[in-house]
Specification:
FAD/NAD(P)-binding domain; five-stranded parallel sheet; 23 strands; globular; disordered C terminus
Amino acid sequence: MLRSRTTDVVIVGAGHSGLAMSHALGGCGVDHVVLERGNVAERWRSERWDSLRLLTPNWMTRLPGFRYTGDDPDGFMGAADVAAFIAQYANVSGAPVRTHTTVRAVRADGAAYRVVTDDGDWVCRALVIASGAFSRPVRPRFADAVPAGVPHLHAHDYRNPAQLPAGRVLVVGASATGVQLAQELRQSGRDVTLAAGEHVRMPRLYRSRDIQWWMLESGLLDQRIEEVDDAERARRVPSPQLAGSPSRTSLDLNTLQADGVEIVGRLAGIRDDRAQFSGSLRNVCALADLKMHRLLDAIDDCARTIGEMSVAAADRPAPTVLPAAPRLGATLGRDIQAIVWATGYRPALEWLQLPVFGADGRLRHDRGVVDAPGVVVLGLPFLRRRKSSFIHGAEDDVNELVPALLAQLERTARRSFWRAGLIAAPSL
């Protein structure tokens, strides 16, 4: 029987967020361990499609005390490159990672937490949840109504077009993943239909600079969650229609239609083998165009402020152009031969057996401070800032969450000293 081991802090997940926290705790002299179910950066190794690249340029790829130093700063790392970058960071920072260690449960154990793994238990005084926001694929409820003869898979399981049979493919979802997969499938010679709901349109380049440069320079990526009107909605905004291609070209519904992709409205349901598409496509696209122009207006204001108006004229993308009457339905098996669900993810936290979930099943937290003593979460979209889920966004969030962990360690230490009769009763 494996004995229980003790440490001050257990970090669940050895992706970029968990390792950034490990670096900070190590700098504070805090004893901790990082538990990872696979290898370091496992999801980048085994849960990404073959051609995926980061949406941020290489020069933005950095972690505390470590950054990209290659010869292609304006390029975009592929999944294998990201995995190698994060693994190198783990080695350089000396993170105490235990790979191939799956967390089965986390339970309260008196004033501590018991972390149950397939390699024995750990008892700790504080816990960091860094297992990622994109853990469990989400499909709409009506996905079960897809006819048995029509193959369908989530983007989580998609690797390349060869996985799909011949015939037209329906891609459901028009965020970054959906538009990239629709383009790849079309370029492979397939007929493609893209079902587009709410989306965020954004040019790859604006005024001759990468859009992410402007987002950073203007302060938009540093915008705090307290500054937005509706925090929960801000956290659910889809990822922008961007692709990290070597050509640095924009990717939007106009680009896809020029390539021959059919655009239809949001997939609203499936009934009697018939896919039903929403009739609100034109309104959805008009709203995306409006928001894009508001973003570019803000960037123009930034360019005036920093004296960059002369960099290049503001070349605004053309309005989204749609067919006069996008079709409202298609028969699965006849019109559509396969489906790819680009419908997002949610965190997989079934192992967290603490009373920290709301009625909607979501983790209760205040900007990363979970509703349990000494528990914090990292890596969620717009956790504290708009950049929170980006690799380079981990450092600031970590720096602000470390004090919550240190305070918990101080409280529990004082309780221990009090029980041992070494100090007066602490304020509990």
